[in-house]
Amino acid sequence: MKVELRGLELYGYHGVHPEERERGQRFLYDVELEVGSRGADDRIESAVDYSQVARLVQEVSETPYDLLEALATAVADAIEERFRPERLRVRVRKPDVRPGGIDVEFAAVTVER
Fold this sequence. Notes:
The protein is of the alpha+beta class. Helices cover 30% and strands 31% of the residues.
């Protein structure tokens, strides 16, 4: 069984450039957790509650990071520690970026464990 969050949008002050850290920008998080049969018994106590996963991502993202790689790793570390999934995938997208002044849909980093 998988628990997924797609497009969790949080405002953050991450980035290498001073203007990114000063004015901030949107970040989109996609989280995928393989949780075995947890929750199949219809009890929230045994399930991985996706609202708690979302809150944890929000907590971690309140600390500024220079690199998306470090941010994605910190989110993955926190989720792994708290929820102990069998498998984990965290993708952090930066939708409002223009690398070298070139239009792109987004820049992203993915951590898989």
